[in-house]
Amino acid sequence: MAILNEILEYNEQFVENKEYKKYQTTKFPEKRLVIISCMDTRLTELLPQAMNLKNGDVKIIKTAGAIIAHPFGSVMRSILVAIYALKASEVCVIGHHDCGMSALDPDDFLGKMKDQGIKEETLNTLKYSGMDFNQWLRGFDKVEDAVKSSVSMVKNHPLLPETVSVHGLVIDPETGKLDVVVDGYTNVPKEQC
C-alpha cells in the first residue's frame, strides 16, 4: 500500500473515533517558547519528552541541523510570527549530536542530486545566477558552534525585541540529555552572542 493511502486510511478512523480530542489546544504556546530543532527522526518524540513538553506547550520549527541560515528566511520569519502574533517570549535553538548536517559535503550532495536526475546544466544555471552551493549546502564540524551561530542570528536580528531570551542547547539523541551551550537569561549584549 502507498504511504499516502495508508495515512488516509488511518486518518479516517482517527477522526471517526474522535482521537483528536486529547490533542486539542489553542494556537498560543502555553509555555511561551518557540523551539528550533533538527528534523532528525530520533527527536520527534524524544525531544518533547526530554523537555517535559506536551501538545500545546511550545511552537516547534524543524530544519536540517537546527540551522538558521538566513536572517530574513522562513525560519526567522516563523520565529518572529511566534513572538509577535502567538505570544512566545523565549527562543530555544536545539542541535543534537550525530547530526546528518555535521560535515555535510556539498560536492557529495551535488553528486547525489545528479544521481537522482538533476542535470549539470541546471546546476550551472543556478551557479551562474549567483547560487553558492558550497555555502548553501555547508554543514558544520561542531554542533555547539552551529547552535551558537543560530542563536547569534536570532539574538542579533534587528526585529527581535530586547526582552526575548534566546537559548542554545544540544541534545543527545540516544539518551535525551540536554547540555546548555548558550544561557539566554544571562545579560549578554546582542553582538556578543
TrEMBL record:
<keyword id="KW-0862">Zinc</keyword>
<comment type="similarity">
    <text>Belongs to the beta-class carbonic anhydrase family.</text>
</comment>
<protein>
    <recommendedName>
        <fullName>carbonic anhydrase</fullName>
        <ecNumber>4.2.1.1</ecNumber>
    </recommendedName>
</protein>
<feature type="binding site">
    <location>
        <position position="40"/>
    </location>
    <ligand>
        <name>Zn(2+)</name>
    </ligand>
</feature>
<feature type="binding site">
    <location>
        <position position="99"/>
    </location>
    <ligand>
        <name>Zn(2+)</name>
    </ligand>
</feature>
<dbReference type="GO" id="GO:0004089">
    <property type="term" value="F:carbonate dehydratase activity"/>
</dbReference>
<dbReference type="Pfam" id="PF00484">
    <property type="entry name" value="Pro_CA"/>
</dbReference>
<keyword id="KW-0479">Metal-binding</keyword>
<dbReference type="GO" id="GO:0008270">
    <property type="term" value="F:zinc ion binding"/>
</dbReference>
<feature type="binding site">
    <location>
        <position position="96"/>
    </location>
    <ligand>
        <name>Zn(2+)</name>
    </ligand>
</feature>
<dbReference type="InterPro" id="IPR001765">
    <property type="entry name" value="Carbonic_anhydrase"/>
</dbReference>
<feature type="binding site">
    <location>
        <position position="38"/>
    </location>
    <ligand>
        <name>Zn(2+)</name>
    </ligand>
</feature>
<dbReference type="InterPro" id="IPR036874">
    <property type="entry name" value="Carbonic_anhydrase_sf"/>
</dbReference>
